[in-house]
Amino acid sequence: MEQYIIKGGNPLVGEVEIGGAKNAALAILAAAIMTDETVMIDNLPDVNDINVLLEAIEGIGAMVQRIDRHTVKINGSGIRSFDIEYDYIKKIRASYYLLGALLGKYNHAEVALPGGCNIGSRPIDQHLKGFRALGADVDIEHGKIIAETEHLVGKHIYFDVVSVGATINVMMAAALADGQTIMENVAKEPHVVDVANFLNSMGANIRGAGTDVIKIRGVSRLHRTSYSIIPDQIEAGTFMFAAAATRGDVTVLNVIPKHLEATIAKLVEIGCEVEEFDDAVRVVSKGDLHNTHVKTLPYPGFPTDMQPQIGVTLALCKGTSTITESIFENRFKYLDELARMGANVKIEGNSATIEGVEKFSAARVSAPDLRAGAALVIAGLAADGITIVDDIVYIQRGYERFEEKLRSLGAMIEKVSTEREIQKFRLKVG
Ligand code: UD1
After folding, report:
1. What mean pLDDT comes out for the span 97-114?
2. For tag attachment on the chain, is the N or C end more exposed, with fewer CB atoms within 10 Å?
3. CA–CA separation, 106 vs 155, rounded Å?
């Protein structure tokens, strides 16, 4: 089992290149099979979630050709099976995007039903509501969602919950439906816009992505394209909070500052200096940082995927901060780990009260999920002494070369898997 070992105390200083957005890439890879022509996708993050989805796509007969670490060619003309097995869904929930993609292209999809996960129960009723509205028969049998129809017909759909996944999944199917679909109360996240732009580059006719209403005029077929994925706002934000928590000075490169507005606003509120450039943001954290209040909300609100990273930072800010998690019910597990490092936290339902402390003391902790794992690494970087983070397989799902990028900013962090490697690190850092 791989672990991170971290000697804390160094402010992070320097520049770091941000990769492509994992959550945009997952949907775009699924959408790439919707044409029989070859699609080239660039700025793909080289992370485990992406590699598992590529396997799932290959598994149903599509051609997947890695050009280099961040570029892939996909050709969906060879697809013979519409059945995505539980093994994939278990490893990566977002394989459910193949439901919308296959249903749109072939009028038939079978995908294992995703269960809950570490951050909450995560129903997919809104996805199914959308497919049904487009005329698909959707049944759940033997743990599988089976969606089928003669042909999909555009419809006016009102979502009861703002859902990134449902917005994207239904948008994909509607792109190849007959006539016009109007989707209301949709998610406005940058990756929703990126998927719409990608589909449009394949010949789809989608308008309004990034607003509350998306209008789709169905087309009969999609064609080849070459597309570059947007930068990952969550990876960028993670490094920005790492700069804040370690009292460092970090510039994130290759970002879209507009996508980071909620993060930047909170960093400024707690006392960091933030400088925005065309495609970079610099965060300088010096002197005392102070408390603030955070509520997670759909975009453009503060992202739930950045909640653990700000939580760790607030635990080192003067005064009492509060966090309200309004998207997922089970996203405070990292605070229990953080308490073991000396943080002063109280959790009540979906709210956490955090009383800032001067310093964390290093401990052995476990990553409860992807973003919480990254947040605990930030905690280790800001702690006195040597922290070990277990279960980093979660972190590797979504961060490419995380430890390398942190080391380039002056962090003392290594990936280890044996007691000997741990001892070697201890000797090296003294
Ligand atoms: C996506 C992101 C995830 C992020 C989340 C919220 C991907 C692969 N994952 O997840 O990293 O944390 O957006 O920004 O892009 N809901 C329902 N019914 C549904 C669908 C969702 O009730 O059919 C609820 C969920 O339980 C949750 C809320 O809606 O409370 C938002 O979920 P959603 O936006 O769908 O998240 P995901 O797309 O799963």
Report:
1. 94
2. C
3. 19
pLDDT for residue 287: 84
Q: How far is CA 430 from the centre of its chain?
A: 36
Residue whose CB lies within 8 A of the most ligand 1 atoms, among 122, 126, 128, 232, for a mutation test? 122
Q: Report the pLDDT averaged over residues 132-158.
A: 95
Strand partners, 72: 41, 66
Enumerate residues lining ligand 1, CB below 6 A: 23, 26, 94, 122-127, 161, 163-166, 187, 303-305, 327-328
Buried b (16+ CB within 10 A) or exposed e, 7-32: bbbbbbbeebebbbbbbbbbbbbbbb
Q: Give me 363's structure tokens.
A: 């401990």
φ, ψ (nearest 5 deg) of residue 213? -125, 125
* Cα torsion through 207, 211, 214, 215, rounded to 10: -40
Where do we find the tokens 């597309």? 227
Residue located nearest, by CA, to atom 22 of ligand 1: 123
Residue whose Cα lies nearest atom 33 of ligand 1: it is 163
What is the rounded CA–CA span in Å between residue 171 and residue 249? 40
Using the mean position of ligand 1's atoms as its centre, give its distance from the Cα of residue 298 in Å. 9
- The owner of tokens 């590529």 is 54
- Asked if 174 contacts 183 with a C-beta cutoff of 8 angstroms, the reply is yes
Is the overall model pTM greater than 0.90, yes or no? yes
